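Here is one chain, start to finish.
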Amino acid sequence: MREIKYDEIVKVVKNMIIQCGTVLPKDAYEAIKKSYETEKSEVAKEVLAQLLENADIAKDEKRPLCQDTGLAVFFVDFGEDVKVVGGSLRDAINEATQTGYKEAYLRASTCEPFSRANLKDSVGYNLPAIIHFDIVKGDKIDISYAAKGGGSENVSRATVFPPAAGKKGIINYVKEVISQAGGNPCPPLTVGVGIGGTFEKACISSKHALFRDIGSVNKDNEMAKMEDEIKNELNKLGIGAMGMGGTQTVLAVHIESNPCHIASLPVSVNVQCHSSRHSHITI
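Its structure:
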């Protein structure tokens, strides 16, 4: 049984949060740069240039990439041969979230759902993270993190189709979701699509799909072709960067597919803005 100290987890996760808050990941930066080079609209081209400039300034001056610093979302693969010493893994991640947001001067965007009372109080930051755990073989802890902004989360959707809807129904649904979203989620976007499983499995899969590096190819050839098809269809919508019109509405479409019940076809679409702040570490 391998032991990992609680304080070590807090330190590395805190640093990951601070890094993500101020430095746009290379895959997202390069994808926006590629969109700039291929964009046909001069107005949208100027917007994309501003997004790249914003990323450069944030990195150089160690300032938040966006005023919406998002909710902290984690996917954690916890090796069954690992023991956390000095506290629980959940508490370590939550402590890292609170200290990371505070030290990096990241906006506390977490509130109570009905009173809307912000969870940043006179005592400090009380920012519980959204954590999805999975128990896996091995003696390591794999932690993936993303800062999920409200604008993109607000336009995300899920439904359950009859099986007869098939691929065509799914593609039309994704187009409908992104078309209705327009410029609200701050495109160019990364679009995660969860297919199959149950209702909640589809939703979690669509969120997890956003953590994949932009530009990576789906290991399932059928899904890879479907991703390209959906991306091409979405870029024909003409929404463009920040909704200003253009040919580059999405940077990537990522699909995760799961077996499902014979009577249903759950589908979820989770949207991420141009500031795709995500990171991964292995302890």
